[in-house]
Amino acid sequence: MAVTRNKPSIDLAGRVAAFLAPRLLQGRHVCVGLSGGRDSVALLHALVQCRQQASPLALSFELSALHVHHGLSACANGWMEFCQSLCNTLNVPLRVVHVTVSGVADEGLEAAARRVRYDAFATCNADWLALAHHRDDQAVFCAPKSFLCCPPRFRTRRRHWHGRLRI
Predict the structure, then answer these.
(1) What is the predicted pLDDT for the residue at 133?
(2) Burial grade of 66 (CB within 10 A; 0-12, 13-18, 19 or more)
(3) Which of 20, 39, 92, 104 is the most exposed place for a label (fewest CB within 10 A)?
(4) What is the pTM (predicted TM-score) of this model?
(5) Mean pLDDT, the chain, as a whole number?
(6) What domains appear along the chain, each with residue ranges and CATH number?
(7) Distances 64 to 45, 113, 129, 159, 166 between C-alpha atoms, Å
(8) How many whole angstroms separate alpha carbon 35 and alpha carbon 96?
(9) Do residues 86 and 47 touch, judged by C-beta distance below 8 A?
(10) Separation of first and last alpha carbons in the chain
C-alpha cells in the first residue's frame, strides 16, 4: 500500500550530497547528532548513502554519530539502545554522552536540555556536525570547532553554524 503524503517525496541523499560536495574536503569527518528520532535517523541514512562507493552520490568522508542521553524520559535508555543498534547495522561508530540537565528553574526544561545537548555536541571531535531538526524540516551542518573557539555563552548561537539545508 502506498503512503499518502501532502508533499511529494524528495531525494534526501541527493540533496545532502549536493549541499556537502562543495563544502566538504575529501577525507573530512562528519558527525551526526543522533537522537533516534525519524529526522536524525533519515539524515544518518542519507549520509551513509552519500558515502557508498557504488552510489552516483559518492563522497569520501569519515562518518560517526553522537547520541546525547539526557535521562529525562522513561524511554531514554530505549532511544540509546536503538541508536546503538542502528549504528551497528550501518557500521557507523557511535559515541554516547550522558549528561545531567541543570538550571531548569532558570531556563525551563527544554532550554536547559538544549544547552547541555549543544555543550555535548561541542565536544564532538569532527570537522562537521550534522543536525536534523523537525522544525521547518531543516538539516544544519556546523563546524563544532567554532563552538570551542568562542565563549561558552555563544556555543549554541546559530551565527556559528556554517550552513543550513532546508528540505
Answers:
(1) 65
(2) buried
(3) 104
(4) 0.74
(5) 74
(6) 32-138+151-166 (3.40.50.620)
(7) 12, 22, 10, 24, 22
(8) 10
(9) no
(10) 25
